[in-house]
Structures are given as structure tokens and as C-alpha cells.
């Protein structure tokens, strides 16, 4: 698949100087297409400064995978670190603190799937790895209705454990143990989807973290490219009013982002008030939360943060305008009330499309303490 280059470059940069663990096992989707896609993904990661620890279950089913991918290790002059049931169980092999960015195979020689998973969990915790991708033939975790769970924090994980089949429960119990022992994030996805999961905002697997880890803050210069790409995505989906590059440049300086686990951009919002200083008000624009995180209250957290910022600026009110009923309902749930367009500052309507105004709903929130 093709990737948005802003998104991809951001995530490649975010992985630079970090260690990522990935599993390839009997239960992974081991077809030629999946293997080729995965090989490309981990090659890009290592070439951009990420150290990839590849936990490979050495068994009959994965033999073809190893034949396809072993050339990568020979080029990097890396030898496998070998573990098996009766072998040495040394906790910190030298290559893990001597190597720079490379793909390092951790070979777990066992046909027993439970032993393999237990060894992965043991080593990831012992080596204090912060990010793990578990590849599964069926991909991420679904609700009972079949809908994919994109993001799960530890509290939600406790609830969904009760509704999963036994095979999935074993895996999810391992995920819960990893999170409780200090692993920052665990992803379950297909082997062929590793690139999409790691290099795009939306992903395509299930991402787990222990806590919400959501932090809303002002955008910084290193955020602008990725946030601009996120806004363009919202425009393409019809949630946001299309803006020119120059208009986007103006509002990014007044933007706020919601960040999950430090590097996942979950949502964005801008508070514009320069044009409305005489009215002592500000406008919320480009409020957009990724579908992946909409069930986590990201939009609410952004609004709460923006309200606090508006109070710091001494504003009496903030307002927003939208043509989408769902967005109207969201604002009303957060204390906004509908007002007539005549109650919005005249500066808002300068060069504004009359056609769009016909379907526009205006909402306001009084923020004075």
C-alpha cells in the first residue's frame, strides 16, 4: 500500500534510537506477500536508526520465513541469539548493548507455542523493552460484533478479557502481564500489516497501553508536519473545512495536540483569537480526533485544555461553527449552546462562502471564571 510520507517520516523519526521487538511465530501470517511486506518494514526501521529485535519461533512452519529473510542478517553481519528449552538462559546477551541500529534475530527453538510466547514475555520484561509487536494470523482483537478494537488501555483490557475465546485470552493475559511489568505499548496485528500499523496514524491492529498516557499541549515546530497531515486527512474525510497552505500556516501556531504514549498523535485543535480581540472571544477550528482514539475521550480532553487556555488569555467566550450534526452534538455535550450567526463576530464572515453559511450551526461556550 502507499503511505502518506509526512506520517511515515514522522514515525520513522520517532523510532530512531529506540528498540522495537517484533514476533514471528507459528501463528503469524506466513505467506510470501506478508513476509515481503514485513521485510521491507523492518529494513526501513533499521536503516533509520531503530534496533529491531526479531523474536523468531524456530519451527517447521517458519522455515520458509527464515529462508526469505536470513539474507538481511548476513548483510548486517548479525548472528542470531539462540534460546531453546534446554539451552542457556542468559538474560542480557552482549549484542544487545553493543549493537547499534540493526535487525537482531532472537531465535526461540521450540514447536511449543505456549513456551515460545512465555519466553518472549520473559525476555521482553527482563530486557526492559518498551514496545512490542505480536504478529498474529487473525490480526488485532475484535469486539463480539466483529469490529476491530483499535486502542485498548489496561482498564478496557480487563473488561474485554471476559468476552474473548480461550486462545485469545491466553494472548491477552500475556499482554496484560507485559503492561503491568513496565512495557509501554504492545500491538497485535498481522505480519503483512506491520508497516501500516507502525507508519500511519490510523494503524490497522490493536494497540495496548497500561494507562491512557494522553497529554494535550501546544504544538511545537517538530509537530507541524505531522499535524498538518492529520488535518489534511480530516479535510479529505469531510470533517474539516478545506484550507490553503497559507491558511494552515496561520492556524498551526495556535494549535494544540493530544498525544498518546508520547508519540501517537490522537487529535488536534486550534484556538484562533487574533481576528476577534475586540470581541474578547476565540474560535475553535480544525477540531479532529482520529477514529482510532475517539472512544477514549480525546476530543473532550482537547476541549477541556482549550477552555483553560482561553481563560488564561482572558477571553469571555469561545465559539465554533460546523455543518455536521455529530460535531454539534459533541459540542453540546461539552457545554456549548447554539447561537444565531448574528451573534458571531463579523470578522468570521469576511470572505466566507454564503452557500456554506446556509447549513452552518454556530455554538458558543462562556468561559469566564
Structure description:
- The protein has 369 residues and is of the alpha/beta class.
- The chain folds into two domains: 5-209, Acetylglutamate kinase-like (Carbamate kinase); 214-366, Aminopeptidase (3-Layer(aba) Sandwich).
- It has helices at residues 5-15, 32-47, 63-76, 95-98, 113-126, 154-160, 166-180, 194-199, 224-236, 245-252, 298-312, 325-333, 354-357, and strands at residues 19-24, 51-58, 81-84, 103-109, 131-135, 151-153, 185-189, 206-209, 214-218, 255-260, 264-272, 281-289, 317-322, 337-339, 361-366.
- The chain has an eight-stranded mixed sheet, with helices on both faces.
- Strand 10 (255-260) and strand 11 form a beta hairpin.
- The mean pLDDT is 86.
Output the keywords:
369 residues, alpha/beta, Carbamate kinase, Aminopeptidase, eight-stranded mixed β-sheet, 13 helices, 37% helix, 23% strand
How many independent structural domains? Answer: 2
Order the strands across the largest sheet as they lie in space. Answer: 3-4-2-1-5-7-8-6
Helicity range: 25-40%
Q: What is the CA-based Rg, rounded?
A: 24 Å
Find the CATH superfamily of the largest domain: Acetylglutamate kinase-like
Q: Largest sheet, if any?
A: 8 strands, mixed
Question: Mean of the pLDDT scores?
Answer: 86
Low-confidence parts: none
